[in-house]
Amino acid sequence: MFGKVYNLFVWGLLYYLRFFAWVALYLNRPKKIIGITGSVGKSSARNAIDAILRDHFKTMVVKQGNSETGVPLGILGINPGNYTFFDWLRIIFTCPFKIDNLKGSEYLIVEMGIDSPLPPKNMDYLLTIIKPDIAVILNVYPVHTAQFDVLFKEKKLAGVSKSRMILEKIIEEKMKLITLVRPKFAVYNENLASHNLAGYESFGTSNRANIKFINYIVNLKESQFEFQMKEGLEKVNITIKNYLLPVGYNEIFAASILVARKLGLTNEKIKSSLEKNFLLPASRGSLFKGLKSTLIIDSSYNASREAVINFIDLTSDLSKQEKRPLVFVLGDMRELGDEAREEHMKIVERIIEKKPNRVILTGPLTKKYILPVLKKRFRKTVKVKWLKTSILAGEFLKRHLPYRGIILFKGSQNEIFLEEAVKKILKNKEDFKKLCRQNDFWLNKKRRFFLGGVTSG
């Protein structure tokens, strides 16, 4: 009985938020709405597109989230706070007074994330809130696959067949941003070219792509990306200073360039604005100084297979360039369901290939899938250690920190929280403010998880 009442309340709240988002869009619909989806890089693409457009147009960015609640709250410009009962009361009361939030905006930039094939966490539901004029589909990888397992419960499928079918379902769900809306303009990863996308523009590595990746260079000062346009064979060089960006950012910048060109900006204006304005959210590749002259690459915000591999490659390359010991601190990749073993084993292959000096693991999935293989493969040549929590992992690392080491932190947010391990080895303790999940909501959640306020250390 309680479950039914709760579900009625949740759906009533969602419809309430959606209604006022509709009103806001009806009263002050921007000239264009740009919707972004993909498995990896949505927030970075949102920031990149805004970085380019804001110098030339009046933009508004939905920063409150990419979900069934985050999208309408962003349209209304309402900060969800810490999602407490009183925050929700405030939100409910505030909605009618925020319907003019979009007034004066020319371009609205919205992330559209899906966690499930079922409403309200699917693309169908998000498209009942907002329909973009410009669609961006960055990529599709096996992320949130656990929620898609429900579609195959009645079918007896082998591992590879099931994984392939789940990935196809995820692709189908994300592609609805184009197939259901049929926007005026769309850009997409050329790997998705088989999905009836004629008339839209692609990015990738082949000569068929409208924008092609040419070159990538990274060092401790900057990340460089080079692209070539199919039309006119013009080249675009992007240099982002003070960020360590893996090669996967070529998708993000390529998509952003195509959108900006469609809106009439020249390559010179795109380059200038992107290089000047681009910022990343916390813990998506931040560089910090650590104890004992170490360098910390903090990508603890979240983890999926492709992102983990990209950052392993990046950190390994920098280790060789700078002649520094290489350390990986890795947590579980969560919400993978039956695909968890296969996805973690692909990470194992990359770790073995890079031959780090030390690997520190946390989370039950790394213990189950990664630890035994590395122990057997490396034996005594590489030091491998598993710890129950990120707090313990950080404390262990602090005691065994290699001088001048370069250390990668990468793991899912769901009960992993590797940013708490990062805190333990920061040279400047005030840098903790620059880590992800440091507001009251997350700190309280982590204190409960770690049983007793240990995150404050």
UniProtKB/TrEMBL annotation:
GO terms for molecular function: acid-amino acid ligase activity; ATP binding. InterPro entries: Mur-like_cat_sf, Mur_ligase_C, Mur_ligase_C_dom_sf, Mur_ligase_cen, MurCDEF_CellWall_CoF430Synth. The keyword Nucleotide-binding applies. The chain crosses the membrane at residues 6-27. Keywords: ATP-binding, Ligase, Membrane, Nucleotide-binding, Transmembrane, Transmembrane helix. Residues 293-411 form the Mur ligase C-terminal domain. The keyword Nucleotidyltransferase does not apply. It comes from Candidatus Roizmanbacteria bacterium GW2011_GWA2_35_8. This is UDP-N-acetylmuramoyl-tripeptide-D-alanyl-D-alanine ligase. Pfam families: Mur_ligase_C, Mur_ligase_M. Residues 36-238 form the Mur ligase central domain.
